[in-house]
Amino acid sequence: MKPFLVTVDDDPEVSRAVERDLRRHYGERYRVLRAESGSDALATLEQLKLRNETVALFLVDQRMPQMTGVEFLAHAISLYPTAKRALLTAYADTDAAIHAINDAQVDYYLLKPWHPPEERLYPVIDDLLDDWHASFKAPFQGIRVLGHRWSPHTHQVKEFLAKNQIPYQWLDIEKETEVESLLQSVHAGHDQLPVVVFPDGSFLIQPTTFQMAEKVGFRMKAEQPLYDLIVIGAGPAGLAAAVYGGSEGLKTVLVEREAPGGQAGMSSRIENYLGFPAGLSGQDLARRALTQAQRFGVELLNPQEAVSLQVAGPTRIVKLADGSELSGKTVLITTGVSYRTLNVPGMSQLTGAGVYYGAGMTEAFASKGEDVYIIGGANSAGQAAVYFARYARQVTMLVRSDSLTATMSYYLIERLKETSNIVVETGVEVTEVQGTSRLESLVLQRAKTKDCRTVPAQSLFILIGAQPHTDWLGESVLRDEHGFIFSGPDLVRDGCLPPTWPLERAPYLFETSVPGIFVAGDARHGSIKRVASGVGEGTIAEKMIERYLDQV
Ligand SMILES: Cc1cc2nc3c(=O)[nH]c(=O)nc-3n(C[C@H](O)[C@H](O)[C@H](O)COP(=O)(O)OP(=O)(O)OC[C@H]3O[C@@H](n4cnc5c(N)ncnc54)[C@H](O)[C@@H]3O)c2cc1C
Fold first, then answer.
1. Which atom of ligand 1 has the smallest separation from the CA of 266?
2. Per-residue pLDDT tens over the stretch 350-364
């Protein structure tokens, strides 16, 4: 995008002459914007600022009736502090212009008339533009998120964008001066953050996830009246099933409530997935899988949450959070698991404000140079520690048991030992998180001695085990005491199938207690909680679904 040269003059004839001369000489490299009053120019500048356009130079008449050139520049500087500023003055205003150089940080003044421009205008402007170019940094051309680092709502917006792999620029109100001018342009106050500004200059104040999704063009409504396969949850298991369903010609829809990738999308580096010796990020895996599924014609509804499941004869009906319904011949549940919550004092107020569940990759860069704490002793916690160690000053892993060997892979324990800024503290628990509007400290207790100590902390990431996302199913399918879904041979108890099972045949592998409803991945009773297992189960489940469809 070419930067702007802005000229303001209240005399239309002069204004058009300046515009013409500027266009003639600079038109190839710059866009020229002309205004006939300071207030008109400021209104346009606010729009340019919202679209993240750049202004290289202001060339402004000093003597204008409502707002002098110097007064205009004083406002314009707050929007475009690095743009060069030149005043156009009559000979009689030379004194005012000289004062302006000192008082209003004007770079140059030009005397009217400026003809011939080759001698009296262009050399000066060339010089100013050379200077401007020397320190110019091209602006970010995408979505900008303005907010407080410690605000849970801001975190939610950033998480939505990051998990859905939508690039954005994060502008922290405490660090970035341009936030103030952007807030002015959208007429919002500090208490209305977060604000999201889009490349076309439109914006959302304190947006919900649905507003964000709509704005970035995600689809949330189904296209077909009846699907062969409805997949609930777009983690590795759901994505794999969708790819195979689509490739086998099944009318397939994939419903995801947060972002494709599931837990794998939170993993900074999966090092043990077959075929990727250097590892791959969960987000990469999710992006590739989703592209593949969509190439096979799979519909993705995101963000959209399944809230109940019913059977109506041969049709399975999935109710969604917005009240709409999906009808399908089969349903595959791949809703995975999420982290157990830590219920200690202070937790509910500080979640999202320094305390995060999962590896919180969005926050990794923001924790540059800080001390980060991670609770957990399994592989996911180890991976998070290795990832955060790239940014943080020190990463401390807080592990309740006495050793990591029973819960973490050997290669990862070795990685932790090799990383000099990772400290592993075993036999310790967090008993309280403290802070007023953001996390400030943790109370740690030694498991054996019960001694307590308080440590200052800015970020705490909690990765302490899993709980299946199956509550929404209620009694519709049989689940174990922890909520994991029974399927296939696991439904057989003391040699008998559940009394509610209506068919002669036994349930297929991964088929639940209701014919035509299948489960795969972490949410399944007895599953091995790995990416490759999820992918494998999703693939096999899809094959079983084809078998089921052949018979109905
Ligand atoms: C940080 C981290 C690192 C890991 N590292 C590794 C590793 O290195 N190697 C490895 O093999 N495994 C690893 N794992 C484990 C692996 O990611 C999981 O086993 C795998 O993602 C399980 O896949 P899934 O599809 O069953 O479920 P999930 O990945 O949990 O996906 C389930 C999806 O369903 C969605 N969902 C839930 N409920 C609903 C609903 N009601 N409506 C709509 N959508 C819903 C969720 O939002 C989610 O996207 C890691 C896990 C984590 C968290």
1. 1
2. 988 889 887 666 677
Q: What is the pLDDT of residues 371-426, one digit of tens each?
A: 999 999 998 899 989 989 999 999 999 999 999 999 899 999 999 999 999 999 99
What pLDDT is attached to residue 368?
Answer: 85
Cα gap 454→380, rounded to integer Å: 26
Q: What is the pLDDT of residues 173-199, one digit of tens each?
A: 999 888 999 999 999 999 999 999 999
Task: Choose which residue among 263, 270, 412, 477 to substitute to test ligand 1 binding: the one with the highest number of ligand atoms within 8 A of its C-beta.
Answer: 263
Burial 334-362 (b: 16+ CB within 10 A, else e): bbbbbbeebeeebbebbbbbbbbbbbbbb
Helix (H) or strand (E) holding 182: helix 178-185
Query: For the chain, what is the mean pLDDT?
Result: 92
Å from CA of 99 to ligand 1 middle: 65
The DSSP secondary-structure symbol of 506 reads P
> Which ligand 1 atom is the nearest neighbour of the CA of 269?
8
Q: What is the DSSP letter of 388?
A: H
Ligand 1: centre distance to CA 351 (Å): 21
Give the residues surrounding ligand 1 with Cβ less than 6 Å away: 232-238, 255-258, 262-264, 266-267, 270-272, 305-306, 334-337, 359, 379-380, 383, 469, 472, 521-522, 529-532, 534
- For residue range 518-534, list pLDDT tens digits in order: 999 999 999 988 899 99
